[in-house]
Design goal:
about 450 residues; alpha/beta; Rossmann fold; 4 domains; five-stranded parallel sheet; about 15% strand; globular; AAA+_ATPase; phosphoprotein
Length: about 450
Amino acid sequence: MSCSVLLIDDETSILDSLRILLKEEGFAVHAAHGGRAGLEQIAALKPDVVLSDVRMPGVDGLQVLDAARAQDPDTPVILMTAQATLQSAIQAVNAGAYYYLQKPFRNDELVATVRRAAEHRTLRVENTSLKQELKRRGGSSAAPPVGQSRAWREALRLAETVAPTDSTVLVTGESGTGKEVVARLIHERSGRLGGPFLSVNCGALPEGLLESELFGHMKGSFTGAVKDKQGLFAAATGGTFFLDEIGETTPATQVKLLRVLQQREIIPVGATEAVPVDARLVAATNRDLEDEVRRGGFRGDLYYRLNVITVHLPPLRDRRDDIPLLADAFLRRSAAHRGDSPKTLAPQALDAMMAYDWPGNVRELENALERAVILTAGDTIAAASLPERVSERRAEPLVSERAPASPTLEAIERAYVTWVLQNESGNKSRAAEVLGIDPSTLYRKLARYGVD
């Protein structure tokens, strides 16, 4: 059965030309003149793909998008406009558009986009069926990332919003904040779940080897190339390719990555012909790429191609309330691997963990708990089983004669909280109001600081 496509535009000439083009490519095409007629056709036809103009009188393309997604969230909607801006593109993608085409576009670009959208639709339907079958059999999909802090939930909400689209996503944050976890979440919530999830750390490989890993190479293209090798971009076709630490790539590699994003094709090392690829790209960096562009360390055109949707992950020190949740999740996972019951944290151990800044973020927390589990013979992890830098953290004075004389952020916070509490005559409820935090948060801070 051919894929059904609904065309919506207020210009008859465009409808006629697109109808002829897509019919020749084997699609079952329906046309609606204007947005209002389009809404009626969406309800009556339930098309597999919707292709709509943005600027139309009465009912515009974003309203068409809302109606199509309200009827069936799995229906990909491609929007097209002659007045495209980065802001309008981001608005459309955030609203759930599958793709955003700028007029005038090439016929082959349009056909390829519609074909990918149709495949996306098929994969989404199959993915839904697979999840239902897993549920029927008592299975479950991968557990969501752990955390309830506001900044973390906002990052996950944006990741889940953009996941069903095919847009490139840039995940930013310090090392160890969980960038690959979020990249996998985007893959698992997308229509590409049935395809592979491949990843590479751009900073872990020298330039020559990275180029071969990304794009593949032909036999004899360099010393040691004894046979053709498929690159990771080609291997990730139909799935998601995660490029970690993309800020570490060289200018030469950046030029080739730009070609992938612009033309959806690669040229293997030693080859003369381009190879088309269909992998969704999720990139990550712990660098400030905008600053790198200003300093000339990163290509601006590549940055703007990557920066359509940016998901920023907060450091662990800015989501301390998630530490107990993360610790519990890690301890349960460790117990499952050992086939044993989970160990618990002594109050002093948890207090030490809450007071520590975790420069290595979630990855450091997980490693510290793995060490503590190994060193703990009983069921309760004491503070002494944690790394010394965590368990023996000393309070820093607000002013010091030793360099550096600058106070730590935690010392400033502790001094300010104590000062507010004293000004409010020890009334914790009023102090919490002044500080702009919940009373429960204030109690946890005071316990961590050892303040009565």
